[in-house]
Task: inverse folding
């Protein structure tokens, strides 16, 4: 059994917990939190919750740590910290900062003699792998990524920070006509606005200026100003009733050519439709933890991404089983 | 430059040739054929065509051999033969015989100190990888594979063997309602007939009994009897005009659950739409040849499948470039 620990018990931590519970070859050793452990009630019976500060003291009881913190402030500090003491996986998803995160984690993991796999999940993660295989198969072509329909927590949070907003949920929605053009191999040039729309469901404080809120959302730089955005005001009851889930998904599409002078057109597409973004991401992280454990067992150390990992290492099945049943 | 040789100059060999020509890090050293070399005219200028029997004599000029023979009789013999003298890749696609092919090739490759990657292409190949990642991410779920719309050369050949048939082309067509049910997470139980239909375009000899031909096709065991089959008689001109391409494609879909007691439903889908099946397969084989070369350079030997190969090895880009641009 691979002894795992989860750091951070938000939605992603809960997803990882369920995935570890479902894996026949993994067990949960402990959950670590920066909150007060007595306030954290986990689902797995009989498993302790410790303060994050005690992780090092428990390192010998753990094969792999599954980090379930956020990319903005948690992981840039935590992943190198943990990589120094234990094999670890994370879902660092700030694409622009991956090279520097990789460098910091790689140094710490080598120093500690551990494996660290960063940026797993679905984007980065399965989407990245789909882009890589599609690029290898079709070196001449164009990549497109569409996200949604799904809840963007970052955009929901941004709306919540507007004065007069009590709660909010934002859906990122791909523009179906754009997706179809790409699928048909038309190779369209698409602006930000052409690819996605943003759909907002907002609960306002009593007496708030709704027009001002709508204006503040639609003109918010980076988050909304480059998109066609719709704003719907609803009651708190409606938000709780209709918008509690965290669905997500999307498609990676590569449109390319083979043959002499591009005589043949091909389209490669990888799509996800997820009821729960954090539970699916947690499930991918658990599979990644298995691979990290196996690389460590082989005596390797340093930072890796899914690009560096043979797919078979993610599966609990043997190489023979995989060849016989999935190849 | 990775020095490649192509064995077999049918459609697949032509596809591999175009892919090698397009790869910035690969070059074609020679084409080997079991036909008379003087009757084989290749596209790449200045490259020799040798009899297959001379492959061993040229082994030192070659880094990787791309085998472009058929799975029924060529590859079971050729791949172990070549693996003994050179690093090699093939597209062996008889799913049921993969374990024994793997064993034979593994023994020969280890004996020769070479790497052999078998069963690359798209199914087996990219479809297999999609199944593996989807299974790792969603351990609880069901796999579905749909093929087409595309030309099945085996089924076209089977029709051509019927007395009175001059030429024929058979398309495998997925049943759209079945695909939609799977995409919607309905987890349908599907029979062979539910999943695909077969569409035949037949040129009959003059005076042939069309009804007898249609009957012979529709009742042909294994090939057609378990499918809803349509037979269309057309002229030779129409066949040449409308059915010369070898398009193919399809979808691998895994429908599964995450969370406690399967509370969340997810769908993972990988799809291909290909103008030319052999040129796309040839392109995947060229990328696989790159990976095989790199494994050999690392001092490894033995048989591999894409399950065992880190995705990054398939790409001509560096690890840094991949992390910065595709992750």
Result:
């Amino acid at each position: 059994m691979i002894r795992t620990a989860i750091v951070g018990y938000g939605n992603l931590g809960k997803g990882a917990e369920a995935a570890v519970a479902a894996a026949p070859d993994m067990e949960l050793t402990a959950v670590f939190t920066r909150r007060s452990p007595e306030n954290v009630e986990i689902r797995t019976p009989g498993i302790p919750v410790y303060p994050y500060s005690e992780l090092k003291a428990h390192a010998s009881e753990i094969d792999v740590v599954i980090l379930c913190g956020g990319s903005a402030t948690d992981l840039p500090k935590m992943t190198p910290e943990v990589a120094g003491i234990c094999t670890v996986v994370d879902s660092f998803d700030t694409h622009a900062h991956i090279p520097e995160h990789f460098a910091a984690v790689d140094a710490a993991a080598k120093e500690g003699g551990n494996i660290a796999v960063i940026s797993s999940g679905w984007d980065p993660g399965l989407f990245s792998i789909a882009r890589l295989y599609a690029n290898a198969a079709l070196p001449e072509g164009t990549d497109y990524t569409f996200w949604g329909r799904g809840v963007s927590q970052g955009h929901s949070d941004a709306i919540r920070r507007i004065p007069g907003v009590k709660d909010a949920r934002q859906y990122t929605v791909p523009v179906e006509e754009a997706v179809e053009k790409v699928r048909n191999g038309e190779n369209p040039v698409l602006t930000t606005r052409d690819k996605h729309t943003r759909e907002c469901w907002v609960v306002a404080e009593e007496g708030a200026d709704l027009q001002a809120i709508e204006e503040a959302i639609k003109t918010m730089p980076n988050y909304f100003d480059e998109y066609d955005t719709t704003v719907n005001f609803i009651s708190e009851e409606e938000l709780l009733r209709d918008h509690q889930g965290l669905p997500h998904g999307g498609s990676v599409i590569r449109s390319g050519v083979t043959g002499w002078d591009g005589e043949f057109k091909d389209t490669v597409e990888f799509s996800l439709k997820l009821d729960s973004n954090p539970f699916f991401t947690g499930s991918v992280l658990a599979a990644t933890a298995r691979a990290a454990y196996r690389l460590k067992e082989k005596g390797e150390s340093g930072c890796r991404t899914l690009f560096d990992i043979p797919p078979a290492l993610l599966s609990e099945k043997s190489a023979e089983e995989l060849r016989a049943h999935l190849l």
Notes: The CA atoms of residues 162 and 213 of chain A lie 7 Å apart. The first helix of chain A runs from residue 11 to 22.
